[in-house]
Amino acid sequence: MKIFTNRSLNSVAALRVRRATAVSLAFVLVAGSFAASAQKKAAATKAARLSDEQRILHVLNRLGFGARPGDVERVRKIGVERYIEQQLAPDKIEDSAAEAKLRGLSSYWMTTAELYRKYPQPGRLLRALERQGRLPADLADARENRTKGANEASKPDMAGAKQDAEGASSNDAAATMKAGESGAAQNEARKDYRQAIQEYYRENNLLQPARITAELQSSRILRAAYSERQLQEVLVDFWTNHFNVYANKGADRWLLVSYDRDTIRPHTLGKFKDLLLATAQSPAMLFFLDNYQSVSPAAGRGGARMRPRVKRFSEMLAIPQAGGEAGAEQQQGGRRRGRMNRRRQLMREGANAGAAPEMPGAQKQGETPGAQAQETPRPQQQPRRMRRGINENYARELMELHTLGVEGGYTQKDVQEVARCFTGWTIFDPRGQGGAAGLTNPERAGTFFFNPRLHDDGEKLVLGHKIPAGGGIGDGMLVLDILSKHPSTAKFIATKLARRFVSDNPTPALVERIASAYTKSDGDIRTTLRAIFASPEFNAPENYRAKIKTPFELAISAVRSLGGETTGAPALHQWIARMGEPLYQYQAPTGYPDTAEHWVNTGALLERMNFALALVGNRINGTRVDLTRFDSAGGTATGADKSRLIEQFAAVILQGDMSERTKATLLKQLNEATTPTAAATTTNAANSTASMTRAANSDDDAMMPRGGGGGGGGRRGGARREMVAANAPIPEAARIAALILGSPEFQRQ
User: Is the per-residue pLDDT at 347 higher than 90?
Assistant: First the structure.
């Protein structure tokens, strides 16, 4: 027992030392980062321009995701200016190798209608099967058992309550045991339900919807890592954040594939107005910001007047039926079913922000449990349709986040008028339920649809521009034209592009010049970018390696710099998520920030260091790097070996552009990590590094940034298991490579 206690104390002491070592490393790196930045700005007053080598690196970092082995030589051969022009014309760049990497991602190439059929939402699938009388008995039983278990758990224990009132506290243990048994039964019922669902999916060649998001994330990783069209991939990342859509909101999981493939990618370098229109008509955006539910209040006035409208609307949606008397009767029944289904759908989704109707049997506030059971039964009332009306979400974000900016000069009245202009911009069968039930054309599910019967056709006034009555879909088109040409939009887009490509705090003079290029070119993105890349500020020494890489940029550039290979498997995305940027998981419509303060903190830096160690140790499933050509020391190294390895890896990862200060800091850290201490039992460098990593891991929950979207694979899932094996030694070469990946020079671009 005494031996065990001593070992435990030694383990705790060692853990504390390892944790302190990891934290000190993070502080050394961040301190070095700011010190290097200060030195660089001081040197910039002496250096009028970047060296040719630095400019190549600068362009590869800013217009792409960093240099691969051989990229610097290739750009040097053709010249920086020609390389920039090539990147500005991605359609002329042959990219079949990158496209081939995506062939295995079957969901990425499907239409939204095909995704609804292949990857159905389990609950919705069961309801559809039940309505059609095709719900398998075992699946029905599993669902009933799960529901019954949940209902039993939610019922108040009246006997227990009575005993508590009488002071029978001796039954606490029995009550706890009963609660435990109930919880175990619920877990078992849920497990059986999941197994039954999985079995049904296997038997019917269906797949779970979560795979759609995973493959979309993989497509982004693969293209960023392998595509020759690097600027296009940077712009896909930029515009995806600018027009952010959250994957976990309802149908957006299915709609985002088309959003990336058909909305964002084709418009990254065209006219901003075309990109704006594409996002405005994107089902993913319409669903995310609720515009598909935005309806003119006049659309529902008058029962007799509304009935034929609904009838004609259902005729527009319905699949043509067989002819003849029987066909007409079947068609009429289909219309009735369509109206009922539409009514139920509206109640589930809600046409606006109104509260859901009170459900029969629901307990009212202040009412004692079981009181409803004693009430006199009343005739069952028909469920009420939820109040429909204009939804201002899209109109507000369109002006605040997509075009004018928060200080763009619009008013609340403008928001209301713009919302009126976009009524009727909706989604045909937004969740695919109509097609699955045979009520609508299944191939049109999840596509843009303008419904003139839901549109507010009155006169509007937007930013001083009169929009005449009777314009129909043209009202929204006119608003987009007004906004895309507005001076505030030019300034807002210019500021965001300058922040992305130049510095976190671009000068007003630079923004003004970029905005002028935008305005003169009628919002041509390619022309606007040329103005940025040709600007003195873009090529200024003080802006060289002045921006902190986002987690996505860091992960991709690390793989590229080491000449690594990746399949884009979920494990790599889980690491990106751990570092704080799960793709398509940012809930707010703002998208991820693009400034240093959001990404620089101790917890984030520790996760970045953990990622570097996992990458060089080949502990990320589906991603591999080969460092054997550097490890001539055989896992251990003298001081001279360490200096040589630092120089070698600096040449590969940073093309030799590492400051003497950083080299000295890394060498000192390597030497100190191998020094025995009273608390730490590790005596060699490899075990010391593994210990550092384990110490960082132990604080994951406390230090992991909570901002952003969450999601992305789970902290206790595959990424945690793959991080670093408990006692696996890390070769000296790999450890040095990891430290350089964590250096200020590599963390910045």
Answer: no
